[in-house]
Amino acid sequence: MRILPLAILLCTPALLFAQAYENCALRPTTLAQMRRCYRPLLVFCPDAADPRLKKQQLTLDEAADDMMDRFVMFVPILAKSAKYQPPLDTPFAIIGAKEIIAIRNRFHVSEDQFAVFLLGEDGAIKLRSDVPVSITKLNSLIDSMPDRKVEMERPHAN
Fold first, then answer.
1. Which domain, by its residues, includes 10?
2. 70 within 8 A of 157, measured Cβ to Cβ
3. What's the pTM value of the predicted model, to 2 decimals?
4. How many domains does one find in the chain?
5. What's the rounded Cα separation, in Å, for the pair 97 and 78?
6. Tens of pLDDT along the chain (158 residues)?
7. Ramachandran region, residue 41 (left: φ > 0; alpha: ψ -120 to 50; beta: rest)
């Protein structure tokens, strides 16, 4: 009977994130751990109840397979994270307070601002927006990246 709990654990969506490479952390806790493994989508928001955050998260959840195929890692950067509910299907990372401060300083985003940044696997900023970003826009941008074109050519990359 020990097989059933293990099967349930292995089928939990949170553990089924796509990884670019085997040595990539399934649950990275820093941007450094995401480099060369994921495309972080940083969503800066004043608090967890903000409708813009909810809209962005819902948009990502509706296209979770696209996000996994493209190695997108959703990273909420919240000033007030009380009662935050992570996405249901989208790969995400919850990072600690020290890392949040470092990220806010690096990207010059204050606690009262809403902003979305897509970083490439190299850590460079590929997109900055002051409003939630559509899946069409994310997919088009990512699919135009040279490293994504290489990924699409690899058999069974995802």
1. 3-153
2. no
3. 0.83
4. 1
5. 10
6. 444 443 333 344 434 445 556 789 888 999 999 999 999 999 999 999 999 999 999 999 999 999 999 999 999 999 998 889 999 999 999 999 999 999 999 999 999 999 999 999 999 999 999 999 999 999 999 999 877 767 767 655 55
7. beta
DSSP count for the chain of H helices, then E strands: 7, 4
CB of 80 closer than 8 Å to CB of 35: no
Rounded Cα distance between 123 and 32, Å, is 8
Which residue's entry shows tokens 């955050």? 53
Give a yes or no: residue 158 inside a domain.
no
Q: Is residue 61 part of a domain?
A: yes
Domain with 94 in it: what CATH number?
3.40.30.10
**Whole-angstrom distance, CA of residue 98 vs CA of residue 53:** 21
Report strand pairing: 72-80 vs 39-47. Answer: parallel
Tokens of 120: 């490439």
Encoded amino acid at 81, one letter: S
